[in-house]
User: Fold Cytidine deaminase from Polyangium spumosum.
Amino acid sequence: MARRRGLTDPRTNIDWDALVRAALDVQTRAHAPYSAYQVGAALLTASGKVFAGCNVENASYGLSICAERSAIVQMVAAGERDPVALAVVTPGTSKLGPGATSPPIGAPCGMCRQTLAEFADDLPIRMSVAGDPSLTRTTSLAALLPEAFRARSG
Ligand SMILES: O=c1ccn([C@H]2C[C@H](O)[C@@H](CO)O2)c(=O)[nH]1
Ligand SMILES: [Zn+2]
Assistant:
């Protein structure tokens, strides 16, 4: 018999504030000397644990890894494979340089979307701009990546 999801199930009871805080915390440790664009991501898994990742750039630019994929690597290395929510935090206006207006709410890139699709059919995703609570949007992996590539059905 399938277990009913209780109040403590992270799928139905996502503590978004805590997840965004974890993303903000790891964002400060991003290694982004080339783009100066620091990103933090925090993945909540079905076990209730949070795995955080930041972008790590390289002098050979193409080797850079995004925050979202960093978080997935942390999750898999810890033996988990069932993400239930993702928070992503991108830089606020103060980091954008002179003359910058309102920053865009940074959404996960295509490569990160497909990497997320490896571990979840769908996933709520909250995207926030650091330091500006009005710039927050909650969407889903299925909305961001319809018709993800899947080698197998089911
Ligand atoms: O989904 C994304 C898109 C970009 N970046 C990083 C990569 C690079 O270090 C910086 C500028 O593109 O932002 C992420 O972390 N996640
Ligand atoms: Zn990415």
